[in-house]
Write a structure and sequence with these properties.
It contains four helices and five strands; from the N terminus they run E-H-E-E-H-E-E-H-H. By secondary structure, the chain is α+β, with helices and mostly antiparallel strands. It has a single domain, classed as Gamma-glutamyl cyclotransferase-like (Hypothetical upf0131 protein ytfp, Roll), CATH 3.10.490. About 30% of the residues are buried.
Length: about 130
């Protein structure tokens, strides 16, 4: 199955450790959404916004990888699944159930995300824009 990562799972080392069958396919822009950070975990989230797009990566993952991600993402309590079409296939990603206010991420988490942006060759400006909200 296809999975869209936009936060710490962009970090290829972490993603491989978490999901041993995962294969990085390509970087991908999800249009109609914007990046945010929220919840007591100060984690990445996406929310609908017709004028924005979220940089991320498409991965091929196995069923067992999906189960591991479900546990890690605290599905369905913290995150729910969101599906969107890509080349006649269904792509799964996660979005937070409760849209709390912006919370600046911890330095440790942010460093993992930044490394993921480098790993996937993503535009760091969008990440910086999301962080400079307040």
């Amino acid at each position: 199955m296809l999975y869209f990562a936009y936060g710490s799972n962009l970090n290829l080392f972490q993603m491989k450790r978490r999901c041993k069958d995962s294969i990085f396919l390509k970087k991908y822009q999800l249009n109609g959404y914007k990046l945010n950070f929220r919840s007591k975990y100060r984690a990445a989230d996406i929310e609908k916004n017709k004028n924005s797009s979220v940089p991320g990566a498409l991965f091929e993952i196995s069923k067992s990888d999906e189960k591991k991600l479900d546990v890690y993402e605290d599905y369905p309590i913290l995150y729910k699944k969101l599906y969107f079409p890509y080349n006649n296939k269904k792509v799964m990603t996660y979005t937070m159930v409760n849209k709390t206010e912006f919370r600046y991420p911890t330095e440790r988490y942010l460093n993992v995300v930044k490394q993921g942006y480098k790993d996937c060759n993503l535009d760091m400006n969008i990440l910086n824009k999301a962080l400079n909200k307040f």
